[in-house]
Specification:
alpha/beta; D-Amino Acid Oxidase, Chain A, domain 2; 3 domains; 7-stranded mixed β-sheet; 12 helices; binds flavin-adenine dinucleotide
């Protein structure tokens, strides 16, 4: 079959890209290898603005829990930094249902969504990517396109087949349990735990989904995640003494920043496949949806005017806001990597909730760096790297 665009992967990035292209009247095929949407492990936390980016309303059926703020615990758990206020509200999604809502929008715009369809290969003709070979329920099929969108996440086949570089692409391994019968007070507050004993070069999280269950996970670098997650659970009997794990999963989160190249001829990468994740938080749902939208818009323009160079509008538009946030957050991550537990405790003493949000999300890093400059140890160890 011939399509204007083929989108590989029905995650946040792919579904947004497909919707944008289909809305402009072009034919789009979305190929998803899994039999269900949203099977990938995720802690499901987003800010309220994620729904604006998704262009759908925050229907209660798509949300497991409302988030009022966060506690960020330095190694000395006695002194959490509290992040609270109207700007910090968010949600713990029911991500499979959220993706169904995005899929519904993409399909109603005219996209053809095919599940259990795993792309194996990209076919080239005269040096240009022209088709994909995919396996659908045991059958090998082929679809051709003018534009290909690789929204196939970590380990992207499109990226590999089309020769996108991997320089700087760095994965942090994660492990997450869904636990029931937890005893979590203030369920609207998400909890983040940092420290080299707790989660070396990463963090642990406790996100209540409702009165019954929570996403409890960890990302660590250079060590296996599961023993650290088990230790974290054992060290928090107040939450988990009578709790049981009902689901476990994991996966890599690309925290090394965005790939240098996200467009190559008529092929575009967006979302996790190109490292479009906020490095410190590992948050990639909204950044991927934004990438999908912008990439889809550029693809539609390029299809409309038969001018592939218009695809370059995608990185240009994305980088204006998101690219710079990803870059700033990566700089902070690199600075945090050098800190020991005493330094992290010191940061816990100096920083307030606004500061932590600005640093982690790559927002106003300069402001926080100037604040740290006033402290002799923090000035040398952290602020100097950030300025
Ligand atoms: C443990 C964990 C916790 C996380 N928690 C959060 C969080 O709380 N908040 C947040 O914002 N982000 C979180 N993230 C990150 C977030 O899940 C991702 O950044 C986001 O889902 C990326 O969207 P995507 O569309 O790029 O890729 P994905 O969501 O990975 O979607 C890619 C899709 O492509 C499909 N696919 C892959 N290969 C092929 C193929 N060859 N053929 C066809 N289909 C294919 C996959 O099955 C998948 O459906 C977390 C990640 C992990 C691992």
């Amino acid at each position: 079959m011939d399509y204007d665009a083929v989108v590989v992967g029905a995650g946040p990035a792919g579904l947004m890209a497909a919707k944008r292209i289909a809305k402009k009247g072009f034919s789009v095929l979305i190929l998803e290898k899994d039999k269900d949407l949203g099977t990938r492990t995720c802690a499901e936390a987003v800010s309220t603005s994620a729904f604006k980016t998704a262009e759908i309303s925050p229907s209660p059926s798509l949300i497991s829990n409302n988030v009022d703020g966060a506690y960020v615990y330095p190694p000395d758990e006695g002194k959490a930094v509290k992040i609270y206020g109207a700007t910090y509200k968010g949600y713990i999604l029911n991500k499979p249902l959220f993706l169904c809502a995005l899929a519904s929008e993409a399909v109603s715009a005219g996209s053809d969504l095919q599940m259990r369809s795993e792309v194996k290969k990209v076919v080239r003709k005269s040096g240009e990517a022209r088709g994909v070979v995919y396996e659908q329920k045991g059958e090998t099929k082929e679809a051709s396109f003018k534009v290909l969108i690789g929204a196939d996440g970590v380990g992207s086949v499109v990226s590999r087949e089309c020769g996108f570089g991997t320089e700087g692409y760095e994965l942090i391994p994660t492990m997450q349990y869904v636990m029931v019968n937890c005893n979590i007070p203030e369920r609207g507050m998400i909890r983040i735990y940092m420290g080299n004993e707790v989660a070396p070069l990463g963090y642990a999280w406790v996100f209540a989904k409702n009165e019954y269950m929570a996403n409890v996970g960890i990302g660590v670098r250079g060590k296996p995640a599961k023993p650290y997650l088990d230790k974290f659970v054992a060290n928090h009997p107040d939450f988990f003494k009578n709790a049981k794990v009902v689901k476990e999963g994991g996966g890599g989160v690309p925290v090394g920043g965005q790939l240098k190249e996200v467009v190559k001829g008529n092929v575009v990468l967006c979302g996790d496949s190109s490292g479009q994740v906020i490095p410190i938080t590992g948050g990639g749902i909204r950044t991927s949806m934004a990438a999908g939208s912008i990439a889809g818009e550029a693809a539609a323009e390029s299809l409309g005017s038969k001018d592939l160079s218009l695809l370059e509008g995608y990185p240009a538009n994305y980088n204006r806001y998101w690219g710079s946030r990803i870059k700033q957050s990566l700089r902070v991550l690199r600075a945090l990597e050098r800190l020991n537990d005493d330094d992290l405790n010191l940061l816990g003493d100096i920083l307030n909730g606004d500061d932590v949000v600005d640093l982690a999300n790559g927002l106003d890093v300069k402001r926080v760096a100037f604040k740290l400059m006033r402290h002799p140890v923090a000035a040398v160890k952290i602020a100097s790297i950030l300025l």
